[in-house]
Amino acid sequence: MRRRLNCHLKLNMAEEEDYMSDSFINVQEDIRPGLPMLRQIREARRKEEKQQEANLKNRQKSLKEEEQERRTLGLKSALGCENKGFALLQKMGYKSGQALGKSGDGIVEPIPLHVKTGKSGIGHEALLKRKAEEKLEHYRRKIHMKNQAEEKAEEQFRKRLKNKQDEMKLEGDLKRSQRACQQLDSQKNIEVPREAWYWLRPEEETDEEEEEEEQDEDEYRSEDLSVLEKLQILTSYLREEHLYCIWCGTAYEDKEDLSANCPGPTSADHD
User: Fold this and answer.
1) CB-based burial, 195-222: b 16+ in 10 Å, e otherwise
2) Which has the closest alpha carbon to 245: 223, 229, 219, 264?
3) CA separation for the pair 180, 253 (Å, rounded)
4) DSSP assignment, residue 197?
5) Distance (Å, rounded) from C-alpha 226 to C-alpha 174?
6) What is the C-alpha separation between 266 and 217, in angstroms, rounded?
7) For position 220, what pLDDT does the model report?
8) Does the reported pTM lie above 0.85?
9) Where is 106: in which H helix or E strand?
10) DSSP classification of residue 33
11) Cβ-count burial of 182 within 10 angstroms (0-12 exposed, 13-18 middle, 19+ buried)?
12) Is 53 exposed, middle or buried (0-12, 13-18, 19+ CB in 10 A)?
């Protein structure tokens, strides 16, 4: 009995040791890996890939820089006797720093080297330059046309303003002539003007006179005549009939006095 109990206890202890052994733990880890471990692995892989890309870029950049440095150094260095072309020139009498040509009127410095770094074809840069110049010329032409249009608009505005001012001046001279004609005709007991528009139209009219005035409205307005034509006709009438000049503001004694002392029959003569 005791032997059986001891064997049973030993078997239980062996099973417990197997349950807590490293092999059991490793099997468990292999079967169910944790999420934090997966994230760490992925992050490490990303860092490694980024580092490889950075190293590749740095390596390419250094190669370009080295190529540029070698090219610059080679262009700055003068040709020596080890160069076959330079050796042939020396045999023909050429000296370093001397101009080329039999008479010595050729170039001294070598033709500059223009390195093409882009992937575009030959002539692409010239095409881009020509397009940029055309675009600039189009912009300049557009600005020039805009300035011309603005100047033309300003000139037209000034002309319209001057014409308006001249028109207002003519209308003012015509009204003064009409007032003077009405006063001078009244002094000579002339009750009806030679032409209806020789006198100013009354500003206030009664209801009884409106119908009679409407009948002679076309004749009174004299739409066929311009303001300048009316002014010329009326000033001539005032000078001949009343020896009066509206710009002088004077009634002269006779025609000789008028011709001797009045500058002329127009407003421009009195400026």
Assistant:
1) bebbbeeeeeeeeeeeeeeeeeeeeeee
2) 264
3) 17
4) G
5) 11
6) 29
7) 46
8) no
9) none
10) -
11) middle
12) exposed
Number of continuous H segments (helices) and E segments (strands) in the chain: 9, 2
Q: Which two tokens stand for residue 134?
A: 């055309």
Contact between residue 203 and residue 146 where contact means Cβ atoms under 8 Å apart: no
Token pair recorded at residue 186: 């009244």
Task: Tell me the C-alpha to C-alpha distance, in Å, between residue 133 and each of 120, 127, 138, 139, 140.
Answer: 20, 10, 8, 10, 10
- Taking the CA of residue 258 as centre, how many other CA atoms within 13 Å lie in the half-sphere pointing to its CB? 20
pLDDT digits (tens, 9 = 90+) for 218-248: 444 556 788 888 888 999 999 998 999 988 8
| DSSP run (H or E) holding 245 | strand 244-245
Return the closest-CA partner of residue 234 out of 167, 181, 185.
181
Residue 222 backbone phi and psi in degrees, to 5: 55, 60
For residues 75 and 178, give the distance between their C-alpha atoms in angstroms, rounded to a whole number.
96
Are 243 and 252 spatial neighbours (Cβ–Cβ below 8 Å)? yes
Q: Which two tokens stand for residue 47?
A: 């860092």
Report angle CA 191, 192, 198 to the nearest 5 degrees: 120
